[in-house]
Amino acid sequence: MNERKAGIKYRRVRPLDGRLLVGYSVNDWKAVKGRKVSIYPRFKETELFVSTIKAAVDTMFPDARKGRVDHYIIESLQTVYRRELSVYEEGVRRLNQLANSMYSKAFHQLGEKGRTRILEKLEETEFFYTLRQHTMEGMFADPKYGGNRNMVGWRLIGFPGAQFHPITHTSRGWKTPGSVSLKGERVRDGNNNLFRR
Question: Which of 10, 50, 79, 182 is buried deepest, with most CB atoms within 10 A?
Answer without folding.
Answer: 50
